[in-house]
Amino acid sequence: MSRPMLLVFLLLILIITSQFEWKQQLVIDLDAAPSISQKQQQMSKREEAVKEKIILSQEKNIQRLNEMVRSLKEQLVQCRGYNETRGNVVTPMTENVIELERQQSLED
């Protein structure tokens, strides 16, 4: 009988110690939960910062492209003026192109 009693005793000790370990893990998990949410908040803040940087970069690129478009339009006007003063001979095809570009610039 001592052998079955010893087995029961060991089983009880095993059950009791495992419950203590579970409780400790729960406490550790509960302590870790706030740090996980803090990490998530930090990550979301970082993501927002990256998104803002991307948006600012895109806005700069748009401004630069708009400046380039204005510059090209000015160059086009200068070229037209040069071509008109050069010979005052404009083919009907060129007149059509100029008229289409004027209409497009009015639409912008």
- Mean pLDDT over the residues: 78
Spatial separation of the terminal alpha carbons: 100 Å
* Percent of sequence in beta strands: under 5%
Q: List the secondary-structure elements in sequence, H or E.
A: HH
β-strand number = 0
Gyration radius, in Å? 39 Å
Give the % helix.
over 70%
Broad shape = rod-shaped
Instruction: Give the biggest beta sheet.
Output: none
SSE-based structural type: mainly alpha
**Stretches where pLDDT falls below 50 for ≥5 residues?**
none
Number of helices: 2
Question: Which keywords apply here?
Answer:
108 residues; mainly alpha; rod-shaped
Write the layout of secondary structure elements.
Layout: H1 2-87, H2 92-107
Describe the structure concisely for a colleague.
The protein is an all-alpha fold. It is 94% helix and 0% strand.
Structural features, described:
With 108 residues, the protein is mostly helical. It is built from two helices and no strands. The chain has helices spanning 2-87, 92-107. The chain is rod-shaped, with a radius of gyration of 39 Å.
